[in-house]
Each structure stands twice: as structure tokens, then as C-alpha cells.
Amino acid sequence: VSDPAVFRLSGQQLAAQLPDPLIIFDHEGTILYVNPAANGAFGPLARGGTLLLHFRAPEMQTLVQSVMSDAQAGSIDYSERVPVERW
């Protein structure tokens, strides 16, 4: 593209192209954005829904609450066996 102004991507367009699941939520756990990889990995997550209600596993509850309380990134190994085993 000869004119760089013509080639602009929004953050949402970039996030949608990530191969890894991405869920953006606020300090109360309200889902603000879910990329297609996250919907594929975790099932449909509705914008405006509550993240803690979707992830019922204790390790996910602990991770989400920790991120909401101190606004620091975190990670865990998480396995979901229903309906199909996923890591």
C-alpha cells in the first residue's frame, strides 16, 4: 500500500486475528471482548456476560479473581473435559 493511512487496523481487528484465546474483561469480570479463538476454545462467551459464571473450575475462579484484584497478568494450566477434553 503506497499510502500508510489507507492501511489501518483497529485493536479489535488485530485481536480477532490472534491464534490464542483472548478475553478482555473489566475489574468486575464483565466480558468486554472475546476473540474467535477464545470462543472456539471455551465455547460462546457473550459480551456483557460475567466471566466468573462461565469458568466454574476453582483454579479459573482463583486466577480471574486475582487478575481483577491486582490488575496483574497471570496464567495457569487449565484442562476442560466437557464436552471434549481441551487444554
Distance between the termini: 39 Å
User: What is the strand tally?
Assistant: 2
What class, by secondary structure content? mainly alpha
Sequence of secondary-structure elements: HEEHHH
Can you put this structure into words, describing what you see?
Helix content is 36%, strand content 8%. The protein is built from four helices and two strands; from the N terminus they run αββααα. With 87 residues, it is mainly α. It starts with 10 loop residues before the first helix and ends in a 17-residue tail after the last helix. The protein has helices at residues 11-17, 36-42, 51-54, 58-70; strands at residues 23-25, 31-34.
Task: Jot down its keywords.
globular; mainly alpha; 8% strand; two-stranded antiparallel ribbon; 36% helix; 4 helices; 87 residues; single chain
